[in-house]
Amino acid sequence: MKQLPAIAALFLLWGCGAATDRPAAKTDGLQGAAGMTPIGGSPRVEQEKEESALPVSVAPCRTDGPLPADVTTAMGADALHTLGQARIEARQPGEAVRILHEALQLRPDNGSIAGDLATALLQCGMVEEGVAQMEAAAGLSPDDPDILANLAQAYVMAGRLKAAGATYEKAIALSPRDGALRNNYGVALMAQGEAEEAEVQIRSALALEPSNPEYLIDLSYVVARMGRLQDAELLLERVLRDHPDNADAWAMKGFVLALEQRMGEAEAACERALQLHPGHRGAAENLEFLRRQAAEKEIGSEE
User: Fold this and answer.
1) pLDDT digits over 79-90, tens only?
2) Greatest extent of the chain over all pairs of C-alpha atoms, in Å
3) Structural domains in the chain, sorted by start
């Protein structure tokens, strides 16, 4: 099974602003650059949401009732598992839950099936059920770093951040050269307000994959929150030099420029992000905030 992205942790730290031991740069209402939602698509970019295993938004899911017309239990557990995975990819989590439940009844000892069932439950917005099912999957496959990573993400979605951190540490011990694991652990640490530890983990991910734009963007957020705005700008310049059309990098640049009170440049960066990806929620919300602030300032100067 695939690792789930660190979306929920990013929502917590960008949407709410994690505290640090150092004075954090003042955000004054700005949202995080990727505009994440508690249950959503990818770790970094809105445009990746179509590719992610987690849901973009929570819609009613029918998880009970008969199997879909094209599915029968005579297919066997492996075939049902494959069909359930396809339903997850197709954003049909209710059907995926029903199919994978049948597959798991046939193979109750299969951790991969149990983990994919948990993913479908999370995709339906059934977070507590998804956590419980992912815990069961980890019990069946305690040495599978992908399942442990997914359990950590489920804990983040449920707001159980300390449990998430402990689970990430177990996964990293099993797969120490997995950059995504270390980066996502850093994101979870930042959500707990542990900025310095978050920086260590994300830099360790970059040591494994020095040019990974997702890790660089995450690190830029961490150092910006620690007040190191020039460092954040330099990291984003690295991303944009190699990936000039990265909407997330432009959105994060707008966020950092706003913290530097360079409001006109911040607006331009958010506008660029929206040109590249019109559905980029964070860029849209930050741009709206910047324009509202500018309008209020203009009204105040006229009075």
Assistant:
1) 999 999 999 999
2) 76
3) 7-58+125-297 (1.25.40.10)
